[in-house]
């Protein structure tokens, strides 16, 4: 596998991927609204299939610390989902929900700087989003996908992806990328959701999309 992977999707294929994201986000709204006790609006800005190596290019500065939420998905083959949000948007959301001392972005250097309540909020948001997005994919593929409890990291995009790429690039170097924006109490929680599919899942998805691409199998 290498960084020369370049998949060109038609507008219809992109629309199908975006609809997959719309279904996932639509299902997530109810659960997130209950968690936050407020109205949530979710919008998708884009959806695509790209190479692992191009993910840092999605960010203005991949060397700025972000909040990464990672969940692996037990299946016949390896699958995983990564969610990446800005520290500022995550902190704004935590501060809305927390009755304790507010956390400033300057004080947040690592996951150890967060209390248990804050970590539980991030994990719950990650679980809700990963669960509903993978459910949407599972429904499309007529299978069952259940993410494990998420792991949280605060680091640069490159650092967050480094170990994950090392593991999963042995299986596939493609990601399904969904860029989404959640609006809560006038606060925008902008995130990038990356689903790492197994070769089996990719083959089935490409078949549904009527996408001709050599997976070197």
Which features characterize this protein?
217 residues; 5 helices; Chemotaxis protein chec; alpha+beta; six-stranded antiparallel beta sheet
Molecular structure report:
- This protein is of the alpha+beta class and 217 residues long.
- It has one domain (11-209): 3-Layer(aba) Sandwich (Chemotaxis protein chec).
- It has helices at 11-36, 87-97, 116-141, 157-168, 199-209, and strands spanning 40-51, 65-73, 79-86, 151-156, 174-184, 187-196.
- Strands 1-5-6-3-2-4 form a 6-stranded antiparallel beta sheet.
- The mean pLDDT is 80.
Number of helical runs?
A: 5
Query: CATH homologous superfamily - what is it?
Result: CheC-like
Widest sheet: strand order? 1-5-6-3-2-4
Shape category: globular
- Tally of domains: 1
Percentage of helical residues?
25-40%
Helix-strand pattern, N to C?
Answer: HEEEHHEHEEH
Rg computed from alpha carbons, rounded to a whole number of angstroms: 17 Å
* CATH classification, class level: Alpha Beta
CATH topology: the name is Chemotaxis protein chec
Q: What is the mean pLDDT?
A: 80
């Amino acid at each position: 596998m290498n960084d020369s992977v370049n998949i060109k999707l038609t507008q219809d294929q992109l629309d199908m991927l975006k609809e997959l994201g719309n279904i996932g986000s639509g299902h997530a709204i109810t659960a997130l609204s209950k968690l936050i006790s407020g109205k949530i609006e979710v919008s998708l800005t884009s959806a695509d299939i790209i190479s692992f190596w191009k993910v840092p290019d999605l960010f203005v500065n991949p060397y700025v610390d972000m909040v990464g939420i990672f969940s692996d998905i037990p299946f016949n083959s390896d699958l995983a989902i990564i969610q990446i949000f800005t520290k500022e948007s995550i902190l704004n959301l935590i501060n809305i929900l927390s009755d304790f001392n507010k956390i400033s972005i300057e004080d947040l250097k690592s996951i150890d700087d967060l209390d248990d309540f804050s970590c539980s909020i991030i994990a719950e948001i990650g679980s809700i989003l990963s669960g509903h997005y993978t459910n949407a994919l599972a429904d499309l593929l007529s299978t069952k996908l259940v993410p494990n409890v998420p792991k949280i990291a605060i680091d640069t995009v490159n650092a967050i992806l480094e170990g994950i790429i090392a593991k999963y690039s042995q299986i596939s170097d493609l990601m399904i990328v969904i860029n989404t924006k959640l609006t809560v109490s006038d606060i925008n929680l902008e995130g990038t959701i990356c689903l790492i599919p197994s070769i089996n899942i990719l083959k089935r998805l490409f078949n549904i999309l009527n996408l001709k691409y050599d997976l070197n199998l």
